[in-house]
């Protein structure tokens, strides 16, 4: 049996126990168009400000298996000090942080969805092995080459790099279906009509194949009387009887003088409606870094990202991987290109960003998109007129904190509603308060409910609740203290908080970011990285 390849590094097994935070909307920073532009305007997009690993975890309950396409452009770990990111993390730490994020990302992707990761040579090949482990090597789709710049870097120490990679993984390649790319004027221009065929423009294809078959190896006499054979070691791709049918239907081209080796005519009117995507994406087709910088300058001239992605690049990804109405997620939102493009293309989007450029770049950009005043990027190509909106969220603080004696207590910043929603997440319930029944704050099934309170739960209170319950209903009560003989109420389960959740996750930690200044450095060991 073949041995499984697995990348190992210092600290690989030390995965964080993430707290499932709740998200708090700030209506002052949410934004929507003043009027509907079309009936298909989308308003439930989400911009989340906060640590992207905690934010991904916060989305898990609602969005597991629902995101059609996730695109991420993580810090590349190049050793260069970028203004917006500390992009020089020690290699093992970078791999640990990426692995933790990829594991949550995989949960969020739909069974027919895909992940697209921008990366460069420094980590691309290590990252692929990590993705193989998490997604399964069989679900690797391809590695795309994107020409990110045209001119060489004269200050390059060795060889000037001109491209980045985009690693593409399907959640389940058996279910994932890529879309065709729209036909372009350039691709259609290859079709001509030199013989005035009434079926319209056509192009011709080779009639021979290298897979030899004696039945398909026969002489052909051209209209000029010349006898031709397939190339040596090859044969024709169709039998003689089929060839004769195609000649009668004027689908074989012998050249203007009727003397050439025959070729098969393919009509523009009969080809598939789009073009099969290729793995080489040139800057003329999808833009480059310079184009992206020009796009960013239109909404923030003073503070331009070092390596933004052009809107045409993200458009190409979403054309292949999504359809209108699908959910798209970017957990390293940067300047907000993914959300801007997804919005213009009629996709639902979620962006996560921790840096202050969430407010200095993304919000101003998305406001212009929604107002229709952003006519850069792909706007004219898709006839963007504005519309829709987004909700702005921030991560709630940690549910538990230590008091002055070092004991874990419920965070005083949590009100009753926040506490109820948080306990729903911790216990696997969907927060959905019943407006008429106070103890039905959330449910895990049609008949299983949860009730959270900071009051002392008494025997009399539970008895009153049980009187209201239907025969097949069950209830979990989460409280700080109770005085109840639980054996008398088999349909009731009671848990004390914070004790019930103390060991479930890591409380009080707000930063899992890719900022090296906030991370402890492992002591180096003799063996750093090995491939088994």
From TrEMBL:
<dbReference type="InterPro" id="IPR002052">
    <property type="entry name" value="DNA_methylase_N6_adenine_CS"/>
</dbReference>
<dbReference type="InterPro" id="IPR002941">
    <property type="entry name" value="DNA_methylase_N4/N6"/>
</dbReference>
<dbReference type="GO" id="GO:0032259">
    <property type="term" value="P:methylation"/>
</dbReference>
<dbReference type="GO" id="GO:0008170">
    <property type="term" value="F:N-methyltransferase activity"/>
</dbReference>
<dbReference type="InterPro" id="IPR029063">
    <property type="entry name" value="SAM-dependent_MTases_sf"/>
</dbReference>
<feature type="domain" description="DNA methylase N-4/N-6">
    <location>
        <begin position="67"/>
        <end position="360"/>
    </location>
</feature>
<protein>
    <submittedName>
        <fullName>Adenine-specific DNA-methyltransferase</fullName>
    </submittedName>
</protein>
<keyword id="KW-0949">S-adenosyl-L-methionine</keyword>
<comment type="similarity">
    <text>Belongs to the N(4)/N(6)-methyltransferase family.</text>
</comment>
<dbReference type="GO" id="GO:0003677">
    <property type="term" value="F:DNA binding"/>
</dbReference>
<feature type="region of interest" description="Disordered">
    <location>
        <begin position="186"/>
        <end position="206"/>
    </location>
</feature>
<dbReference type="InterPro" id="IPR002295">
    <property type="entry name" value="N4/N6-MTase_EcoPI_Mod-like"/>
</dbReference>
<keyword id="KW-0489">Methyltransferase</keyword>
<keyword id="KW-0680">Restriction system</keyword>
<dbReference type="Pfam" id="PF01555">
    <property type="entry name" value="N6_N4_Mtase"/>
</dbReference>
<keyword id="KW-0808">Transferase</keyword>
<dbReference type="GO" id="GO:0009307">
    <property type="term" value="P:DNA restriction-modification system"/>
</dbReference>
